[in-house]
Amino acid sequence: MNRSTLRLAAVSAVAAVTLGAGAGLAQASQAAEARPAAAPAALSAADARALLTNPAVKAELKAEDTRALRAVADGTAGRAQSRAAISGAVKALFNLMKRHGGKLWDDAVKAAKSGWGKFRSYMNGLSWYHPVRIAWVALGAEAQYQLYTYIRSLFA
């Protein structure tokens, strides 16, 4: 065997391995797309009650947001009212963060620019008695992520 035959055999082997691995990856990505997406988590009744009992958050809520949160807390909310409750809670926490302003707001924006993990760590790292931290914990995972994406979209 000469040198060019060996090179051709090596290139063929690498191409076969690459195409084989690529086909497996393509099948795996198609399988992932075929799975149905999980239903988004909604604001729980306990979280809605916690938000309604927090005076700092309650001061930031509009009347229709308060009604939606009460419906969720009572368990009588439909899908649209549940989404409105989450939206109202996110707006209230956003306004509360802006009201506290200063270092908290600047650090929250900086953390949001760094990614979801940094933002969540920053918010969870606030003092346990801080009104923003109390509202953050009461929001629940979906609303927390919506707040993060909203802040990130403002400064992206």
Shape: elongated
**Unreliable stretches, pLDDT < 50, 5 or more residues?**
13-19, 21-40
The description of the largest β-sheet is: none
Order of helices and strands: HHHHHHHHH
Number of strands: 0
Strand content: under 5%
With helices defined by DSSP (H or I, 4 residues minimum), what is the helix count?
9
- On the 0-100 scale, what is the average pLDDT? 80
Radius of gyration: 24 Å
Helix content: over 70%
Structural classification = mainly alpha
Separation, N- and C-terminal Cα atoms = 59 Å
Report on the structure:
This protein is mainly alpha-helical and 156 residues long. The chain is built from 9 helices and no strands. The protein is elongated. The termini are far apart.
List its salient traits:
156 residues; mainly alpha; 9 helices; 81% helix
List the helices and strands and how they pair.
Elements (H helix, E strand, L loop, with lengths): L2 H32 L10 H9 L1 H6 L2 H12 L4 H22 L1 H13 L1 H9 L6 H9 L1 H14 L2
Summarize it.
By secondary structure, the chain is an all-alpha fold. It has helices at residues 3-34, 45-53, 55-60, 63-74, 79-100, 102-114, 116-124, 131-139, 141-154.
